[in-house]
Amino acid sequence: MEVARALQLARDADVDLVEVAPNSDPPVCRLLDYGKLLYLTSKKERESKKGQKSTEQKEVRFRPNIGTHDLDAKTRKIREFISEGSKVKLTVRFRGREAAHQQLGLSVLKRVADELKDEVRLERPPTMEGRALSMVLIPALVKTEVPNDKNQDQVEELADAKT
Predict the structure, then answer these.
(1) What is the pLDDT of residues 22-56, one digit of tens each?
(2) 19/27 Cα distance (integer angstroms)
(3) 100 with 120, same domain?
(4) Do 110 and 73 form a contact (C-beta atoms < 8 A)?
(5) Residues 77, 82, 88, 90: is their CA dihedral positive or negative?
(6) In a shared domain, residues 133 and 61
(7) Is 133 found in the same domain as 96?
């Protein structure tokens, strides 16, 4: 069909002439409401984004000679980030001559990882990035416990004892 004829049909029907497949030979066009098409495609995109879960990466910075209470406070914050489902990047920054004592930074990271070992998995082991030592932790896979008959009997006995 000629372009002029197609445009005339589109005007008569009060719709738009939209090129659907420009690379085919001959190009394919359709008569449709372009605004409605844009609305429907944006609606599909929003629906597909709803199902996706975006994981953020949070960063917690340490110094090699951090105090125990400061370390505990930062560990609590890391635990909070992990429970939200975020990745956490732990970074130990070295200044000046501290860079010569990387084992101190490594021990700080190891202490945090040991304290959180039940809740996290190591995604990236400790590596030096310039004057910083960093590693990435991600939430551990949660295992759902299937109760067996023995556990079920104990639960029922406890429920009967309470009543």
Answers:
(1) 888 888 888 888 888 899 999 999 888 887 776 78
(2) 7
(3) yes
(4) no
(5) positive
(6) yes
(7) yes
Question: Distance (Å, rounded) from C-alpha 93 to C-alpha 59?
Answer: 12
* DSSP designation for 143: P
pLDDT tens column, 136-149: 999 887 654 455 55
Tracing tokens 């004829």 back to the chain, one arrives at 5
Contacts of 108 (CB under 8 A, 6+ apart): 62, 64, 66, 71, 92
Q: Does residue 146 fall inside a structural domain?
A: no
**Long-range contacts of range 145-152, CB-CB < 8 Å, 24 or more positions apart?**
none
- 92 is a domain residue: yes
Check whether residue 17 and residue 64 sit in a common domain.
no
- Determine if the pTM surpasses 0.85: no
Q: Give the number of other Cβ atoms within 10 Å of residue 94's Cβ.
A: 19
SS (H, E, C) 27-94: CEEEEECHHHHHHHHHHHHHHHHHHCCCCCEEEEEECCCCCHHHHHHHHHHHHHHHHCCCEEEEEEEC
- Please report, for the domain that includes residue 32, its CATH number: 3.10.20.80
Quick count: other Cβ atoms within 10 Å of Cβ 108? 21
Number of domains comprising the chain: 2
Domain CATH number, residue 108: 3.30.110.10
